[in-house]
Amino acid sequence: MRMLLRVALLTAAFALATAAFGWWTVPVLGVVWGALVGRNGRPVRTSAVAAGVAWTMFLAWGALQAIGRNPDASSDIQTNMFIGIAFAEAIAIYALVVALILLFVV
User: Is 24 helix (H, G, I), strand (E, B) or coil?
Assistant: First the structure.
């Protein structure tokens, strides 16, 4: 339950920061979160999952708005949305790998 609460709060923080300042705030917040909470692997996993959820949420929200404005182009928009979601999740996985390398090597 605590892990789900952490992921939900971090997802909200990542989403608000991305809306206010841009996409680059997600890795910065992830590093800050990992540095503040501690050296075990839990903050690293939590921030990686929350980053993936936040970016996926923004991509899906934008695609839904675009489909609402132009329903005739929904198939093209959905294709691009799924490709974008795959890239967003891949970036979150890369962030997790880098964070784990930093955790165990440094």
Answer: coil
